[in-house]
Amino acid sequence: MSSERSRELITRGNLDGIVSAAVFLRRFPSSQVRFVTSPAAAAALLTSSDADHTYLADLSPAPSLAEAIEHAVRCRRITLIDHHSYPKEHDWAIIDTSTSAAGLMYRYLGLDGMDAVVAMADLYEHGGSPLVSSVADVMGHEALRRESEMLDFAWRLNVKDDAFRLAAARRLSLGLLPSSIPCIAERHAKMVGRDGWRKALDSARRSLRRFGSAAVMEYSGRRPSFHGFGSRALTEAARQEGCRYAVLINHGGSESVVSLRSTAPGGVDLGRFVESFTAEHGMEGGGHPASAGARIPSSSADLLIERLAVLA
Ligand SMILES: [Mn+2]
Question: Rounded to the nearest 5°, which phi and psi values hold at 199?
């Protein structure tokens, strides 16, 4: 077996995962890529794999996956590249919360020629990065946002279609952008034609309430699906309403789960914001500058909204 064939990538099927696959394929064009939806699904694939070197991207080392990796590293190489903060350190894990998984892999593998493609993932995951700024200087921020949106719409047309993901990643690995890749552009056009995005934005807009800088959606239990677009529709509706931050609050009994997204680059570091809020009011929270989450006492939810409302 050639060394190319015994190397593989396991990653997620979302935008960051598809761009991670593109980065991997630029470096290892004939290696295998498989897409999964969770660390547990990655663990199952890893356990049945016989690759000499498995890369895992955009998957956090949750207990099920960490256990499978600890077992596998006894006889083969494993490299996990991820950007979600995780409390435990492992010598097979490279974790950096300041970039997308694709951006981290791009740096780690020492690649170039895909700056704009990788910037789409940084923009999608974090709202910004040094790479996003330098690419936006050249092609414009709005053009970069549109390219990112094209790829994001395209995979959502049929979330089960891994053959599409792979074909898209192969073209992206050449440094091409979504608008110049027919299979992506066609799917994006179909998705726009279905009008699902407009419907998702409309229903997101209806469920948001504005409080100064913050657009807030509160619910209890399962979050509405928004025609398959989920929190993406909420963040975009918030942006169009002129709000800097989108806030989702899932009210449980005594505690509530909060998720925060910034809708434009700049602004307050949301990870730090929730860390200091939870340090003051209890429970726990953390995240990135543009995306953060927390568990808070339900009694402090109104205060959290008030604080966010007055942020610049
Ligand atoms: Mn990611």
Answer: -65, -40
pLDDT, tens digit (0-9, with 9 covering 90-100), for 169-221: 999 999 999 999 999 999 999 988 888 888 889 999 999 999 999 999 999 98
CA 64-70-71 angle, 5° bins: 95
Q: What is the pTM of this model?
A: 0.80
Whether residue 138 sits in one domain with residue 42 = yes
CA torsion sign for 208, 143, 186, 22 is negative
> Following CA atoms 66, 70, 76, 79 in sequence, which dihedral angle do they give, to the nearest 10 degrees?
40
What are 241-282's pLDDT values in tens digits? 999 999 999 998 899 999 999 998 778 989 889 999 999 998
How far is the centre of ligand 1, averaged over its atoms, from the C-alpha of 86 (Å)?
14
Asked whether residue 139 falls in the same domain as residue 285, the answer is no
Does a structural domain hold residue 1? no
Measured in Å, residue 83 CA sits from the centre of ligand 1 at 7
Distance 71 CA to ligand 1 centre (A): 25
Quick one: 227 and 257 in the same domain?
A: yes
- How far away, in angstroms, is 102 Cα from ligand 1 center? 8
Please tell me whether residues 100 and 29 are part of one structural domain: yes
Token readout for 126 is 């974090």
Instruction: Please give the distance, rounded to the nearest whole angstrom, from the Cα atom of residue 11 to the centre of ligand 1.
Output: 10
Point out the domain boundary residue: 191, 208, 231. Answer: 191
Residue 126 Cα to ligand 1 middle (Å): 9
